[in-house]
Amino acid sequence: MSADRQQLPREQWGTDTGFILATIGSAVGIGNIWRFSYVAGENGGGAFLIVYGLSVLLVGLPIVIGELALGRRGAADAVVAFAKDAPRSAWRYAGWVSVLGCVLILSFYAVVAGWALKYFLGAVSGALWQAAGAGYGGYFREFIADPVAPLFWQCVMLALTVFVVAGGVRAGIEVANRVLMPLLAFCVIVLAIYSATLPGSAKGWQFLLSPDWDSILTGQVVVAAIGQAFFSLGIGMAVFITYAGYLAPETRIPRAAVAIAAGDTLFALIAGLAIFPAVFAFGMNPAAGPELAFITLPQIFLAMPYGHIFGIAFFGLLSAAALTSMMSLLEVPVASVLHRSRITRRRAAILMGVAAFVLGIPSALSFGVLSDVRISGDGVFDFINRAVSNYLLPLGGILVCLYVGWFLRRADAVSAAGLSGGVTGVIWYWLVRLVAPVMVFLVILDTVGEL
Ligand code: PHE
Q1: Spatial CB neighbours of 135, under 8 Å, sequence gap ≥ 6
Q2: Residue (of 371, 369, 390) closest to 380 by Cα position
């Protein structure tokens, strides 16, 4: 089979459905399962949802279309997509920003993914439930402060990712997403339904869905919503550019982009409806942030009927959602290396996986051995986490907007997106040319002002 593949000019997705599942798999991740609900809770619940929806529609969706258009047009990788029209211009560096960015994101993302996998296997074996003695606060903090355990689990998640990506686009990434994504959807829906049956769950629904109108249009809510849209969709890091590089020419890009944006948003919403009713039913704090998934929720699983099964499903969901996002983060650098050397896909995947692991060591140890290392007040993990969502992804997004909206000829841009000749094309073009970059720029300015 590998001999066959080497003879092909380039790899391609088996089907459009496979491609769409893989892109939704990239978007749906740790960001949807706890970050969305937590940020929504802090920023006015239902009111945040409205602003978030607008951010996805006016900023996120146009950039997703832009990335898909660039990717299919380049038909190769992140670097080619930006260097196609002017190989000698500074644009050839734009793709490399994403390539390096992806390795950096992967490095700290794998740490949280590793925590999730440890909890999942602990829930399956029962070790997690026996560890409850002094509460999960102590359990979690002791685990992340350990000098070896977090590294081990981070390594296992990266190894799984490397294994899938080494299998290729069609036989690795597409197959994994075809299996995992329907499972994830099923799991999160069942969890949300079960959560709704808990006594006192209505407060959780209210928390997430009832608008607190006073907070709707403050700058903080808009900034939080746009930042969340970037992280949750996973835009600005050439993931969609890379995945669309393997697309057949006839795939309809706008339709795929709508499926990605809608799938990602719906998933976040349903995950929130699984988590918050349970949090309220047990009188826990909904705004516990990163600790929510690893300290608050296990406590709840221990107390609720069928909680162990719920726990297995929840941490399985979190690990699998992280894995499908990690595949896309690894594929971006792998594709770029593959097209520039004679190295095999397997070697490239291992090489990039090792790079992400090494780069992630300080993040994995930043709650223990390296807790004294501070960068502008944060530990290494927190610093990278914040820098990625506040600066790196928005910067990548602006580059897409500038390239598509200002550098390309308008007719080329619109036809690459498959939107020629309609009012939708005009709307998209102005969103990507003006509205999205201005909004993102304001967000960056606002964040800088806060420092
Ligand atoms: N979208 C993923 C999540 O919600 C994270 C991600 C960011 C994936 C950037 C790819 C690129 O967890």
Answers
A1: 295, 299
A2: 371
Ligand 1 binding pocket (C-beta < 6 A) is 26-27, 29-32, 105, 231-232, 234, 237, 239, 325, 328-329
The DSSP-derived string for 150-195 is: HHHHHHHHHHHHHHHHHT-IIIIIIHHHHHHHHHHHHHHHHHHHHH
Query: 296-328 b/e with 16+ CB inside 10 Å = b?
Result: bbbbbbbebeebbebbbbbbbbbbbbbbbbbbb
From 107, 76, 72, 12, select the one nearest 335 (Cα to Cα): 76
Q: Give the nearest ligand 1 atom to 325 CA.
A: 8
Phi, psi of 15 (to 5 degrees): -140, 165
**Which residues make Cβ contacts (< 8 Å) with residue 261, sequence separation at least 6?**
56, 57, 60, 61, 64, 233
- For residue 396, how far is its CA from the centre of ligand 1 (angstroms)? 13
- Pick from 264, 286, 236, 290: nearest CA to 53: 264
For 246, counting Cβ atoms within 10 Å of its Cβ (0-12 exposed, 13-18 middle, 19+ buried), the class is: buried
The Cα angle at residue 145 between residues 140 and 146, in degrees rounded to 5:
100
Please enumerate in sequence order all residues whose Cβ is within 8 A of that of 24, keeping only pairs 6 or more positions apart, or say none: 177, 181, 259, 260, 263, 264, 267
Q: Residue 336: which of 28, 97, 88, 161 has the closest Cα?
A: 97
Measured by CA distance, the residue closest to atom 11 of ligand 1 is 234
pLDDT tens digits for range 247-268: 988 889 999 999 999 999 999 9
The structure tokens listed for 292 are: 């929510």
Question: Ligand 1 centroid to 116 CA: how many Å?
Answer: 16
Q: Is the pLDDT score of 73 beyond 90?
A: yes
Record the tokens describing residue 253, joined without a space.
């890009």
Tell me, what's the pLDDT at 286? 78
Nearest CA owner, ligand 1 atom 10: 234
Whether pTM exceeds 0.85 = yes
Whole-angstrom distance, CA of residue 427 vs CA of residue 217: 24
Instruction: For a ligand 1 pocket test, name from 102, 181, 241, 325 the mutation site with the most ligand atoms within 8 angstroms of its C-beta.
Output: 325
Instruction: Dump pLDDT digits (tens) for 371-385.
Output: 999 998 889 998 998
